[in-house]
Amino acid sequence: MSSPAKILTIDDDRFIQKVVSRALEPGGFITQVASNGEDGISRALEDKPDIILLDVEMPGINGYEVCTRLREMPDMKDVAIVFLSSHGSLRERLQGYEVGADDYLVKPFEAEHLLARVKVLGKYQEERKELQSQYQLARKTALISMTGSSELALVLQFTQKSISHTTIDETIESLLNTIDELSLDCCIRVDADSGTLWFASSGTISPLEKELVETSEQGHRFMDFGCRTVVYFSNLKLLVRNMPIDDLEHYGRIKDMLPVLMSAASIRISTLSTYKALVDESEGLKRSFQGIRKNLYDLASTIVENRQRSRDYMAATVSDINMELMHMGLESEQESYLLNKIESSIMKTMNEMDVGEQLRTTFTFILERLDDSTKTHGDLLDAFIEVQTAYDSEQTQEIEGSVEIF
């Protein structure tokens, strides 16, 4: 032992007390004595000896009862107890071991024998304390490892499940559930395309907390304020209200895991924003195509209608002129000349108007191409959504079959 072992002798015989003290003196032990069982129990609780030498036959309570009562006390469970008795039968020895003794020495005994037995017990006590220390360390290490594995499994589960989230609300809800499993209380700010969104794992978010998240320096990933920690990502900010600052190992694990959780959530939110922008742009393009198609169709219809009205109008004009010439008293050669001139001009005009038919054909071709482009764009978007949905479903099935919470 690093310091001299303390030996308590409980014996009503003062001669035995002196014999024991002298026998143990060469070993450098610190000896103490008590003359009866009650006094011995009090001294043991007060002085916390390493070894107790206990007489069996004493006035009041005997040694067996003293040993029984000592073993019921938490502080005395690991103290070595040696019975000193003038009776050494097998039955008496067994009775001593049954009540919790570590050794049994029969009186009278040689001083050297007692010293040797006490040294052995002292070494045994040292080894037992060392083993207990190693056991506690191993147990603590195992608990830390198990806890760390369980926490890591939660992080892995969220990271994989985040792939299948279809909305920002779903992503943040899953993140809050995971953080709750880690026994943390937090609030989250999301900078989305639709604006700033706030979420909390419990209760409401105070104005001071919002100000803390919004105004803290963002040059670092973490900002610590006592038991509060702010974690920054470009589109996501997290305030943890109850960091385990009293448990440095747990604190370190949490600070290792939070960036992983936040990174997965941030990436998914960015992906959802990109996906929404793609869908919105696609819908806008589709509406633009539909508007262009309608305008072109209306324009082509107007051109065709105007062309037909012009033909009808010119035909009516020729008929009216022909009727008027009959009453103008012109010679037949003059009438023929004028009519030929008018008909020639009308034919040229009609030929020019036939270009409208080409325009109509061109408009029809453009409309057909717009319809094809709109359909192709819609098919591509549907295919993208189908592939993304199938991929998310596959990832979810893999998660359900592979992630284990310890």
Topology readout:
Elements: E1 6-10, H1 14-24, E2 30-34, H2 37-47, E3 51-55, H3 63-71, E4 80-85, H4 90-98, E5 103-106, H5 111-161, H6 168-181, E6 186-192, E7 195-200, H7 207-215, E8 222-225, E9 228-233, E10 236-240, H8 248-326, H9 332-353, H10 355-402
Helix pairs in contact: 1-5, 2-3, 5-6, 5-8, 6-8, 8-9, 8-10
In words, what does this structure look like?
The protein has helices at residues 14-24, 37-47, 63-71, 90-98, 111-161, 168-181, 207-215, 248-326, 332-353, 355-402, and strands spanning 6-10, 30-34, 51-55, 80-85, 103-106, 186-192, 195-200, 222-225, 228-233, 236-240. It is α/β, with parallel strands linked by helices and 406 residues long. It has three domains: 6-109, Rossmann fold (3-Layer(aba) Sandwich); 146-269, Transcription factor LuxR-like, autoinducer-binding domain (Beta-Lactamase, 2-Layer Sandwich), CATH 3.30.450; 276-402. The strands form two sheets. It has a five-stranded parallel sheet with strand order 2-1-3-4-5, with helices on both faces. A hairpin with a 2-residue loop joins β8 and β9. It is rod-shaped. It starts with 5 loop residues before the first strand and ends with a helix.
